Amino acid sequence: MRTTKPKSPRKPVATAAKRTPFRKPAKKLAPVARRDEVKTVSAAVVDLASEKLQKVLADAGLGSRREMEALISTGVVTVNGDVAKLGDRVRPNDTLRVKGRLVKRATKSDSVPEVLLYHKPAGEIVSTDDPEGRPSVFDRLPRLRGKRWIAVGRLDFNTEGVLLFTTSGELANMLMHPRYRIEREYAVRVQGELSEDNKEKLLKGVKLDDGMASFTRVEDIGGEGTNHWYRVMLAEGRNREVRRVFQAVGLTVSRLIRVRFGAVLLPKDLPRGAKMRLSEQWVKGWIEDLKAGNSRAGVVAPAQEGSHSQAKPVTRRVSVNAPKAKAGMGANKGGRKFASKKDVYEKGYVGVVESKRRERKRVTQANSVKRAPKKTSR
Fold first, then answer.
1. pLDDT of residue 258
2. Do the domains at 41-102 and 176-363 have one common CATH topology?
3. Is the pLDDT of residue 41 over 90?
């Protein structure tokens, strides 16, 4: 008789777990990063700690960013012993040298940069190196220790008016870069008069060798004889731009005065060749408004560019009863000194330093005022 072995119970076959509402889903493991991906991430982190070479040199007070870009292209700047080129970025521990001299990196602080207003006369060049040996505006500036003055833009040899200097490369770049649209105001004397058609061309734009150019505002302020004065405004500062724009419509500029740069007006009592420092409070407020794009800082709104409106900009707050400035009359004879000290104070900033002559006059007047005698009771 054949005997059969009892069948052993079958082992349960492993089956895929069914996802039910009562079962917690399994956690998915994060994919392992590849080596090339790790390198890319680390490189991005390093770039965040680096800065453009021209910005670092400008912040060190060696000049504007455009000047530093030109300096780098000459091959005299080295980074850790290697010749630098445009587009290089540097880290805080890199060693920078210009013509073999060690560059002292600027430390980040909350200090307000110095800003100097200079009334440039005709016959001075805005450069420290002139082969012809002409007088330089830098010869009249006060000396600094460990810093240097950076010119905010340039004025031609025969152009007068507001010229700003600062110790901050960042502020200089902010004031000069076209994307910030800082408005400049000029008093222009031309030979002849501007017709309405040519005025429309100046507002719409004329073609120059380096692109289109236009004024945001053109105002006729009178004149006598063959000479006529105009007040024009534009939101950029290309080389000899005002002269070239008028030349494009057949008019020759015989005299050019910059009476305003952004929110900085040319004071009446600041003679040619004189200078004055702007107070820290004023500069701090101006920088805050510049970063915010406030029109009070002299920033041109995109809607105003190319506009034909003749309304006065927000940056000029003149009293209603104040007489209109005209060329060839009174204190404005010759078309100069359009802005008064009162206009500067009414900009919304405080603490602009007075010139010594005006301060003495104000103190003298205050001391000469006699108080009325008090009434005594009988």
1. 94
2. no
3. no
